[in-house]
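task queued by scheduler; priority normal; single chain, no ligands, no partner chains; default sampling; output format set to C-alpha cells
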Amino acid sequence: MNIYKTTIFRDAASVVGLSAGEIAQHEADVIDFDTNFKASAKLAGGIALPESKAILFQDWTALKTIFTNPSDLFYVEVNTDRYEIYFNVSPSASVGSYGQISVGITATEIVPANPDRIALIITVKDNVEVFLGLDDGVTTENGTQYKQDDVLEIDQVNLYIGAIFGIVASGSADVRFMEI
C-alpha cells in the first residue's frame, strides 16, 4: 500500500520561502479543496502512519490525478494554517509495459500518470535533443534536455507517478520507455 500525502497552506502568504507563484497556487488549491473535495473527504483527528509504508509527497494537482472518489481522501486541519491531505492506494499486481513514442514539435505524452508505478526508464534513441517535462506545457525552453542514449530512471527512491511529456525543437525523435 502507498500512502500519498500533500500539504496545502491555507495562509500561504505567511509561509517563508514560497514564491508568488507558489502562494497563488496554494490559494487556488485551498479554494479547490474547500469547494470540490472537503465535504466528501474524511476529517481525521490524526493519522498514524505505519513506519513500513512509503509516504509519497505529491502536490495537490498531482494528487488529484490518482484518485477517483473524493471520499477516499483523509485530511487533517493543522492549526488554522494548513490542510494535510492523505490518500491510500493498494497497488494491483504490477503489469509492465514498454513501447516507442515519436516525440514531435508539440508536447507529446510519453507515459501517462500511473499510481501503481514502481519504476520507469525513458531513453532517447535518435540523435535529436528531447526536452522532458511533467505536463503538456513542456517546451524546449523549460524542459529537461536529453540527448541520444541519455536515460531517465525513476524508481522507489525518486518515485514520480505523474505523466511525462516530451518535445523537440524540430523534426521528431524516437523515444523508448519501459515501466513496471
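post-processing summary
- The chain has a mean pLDDT of 83.
- The radius of gyration is 18 Å.
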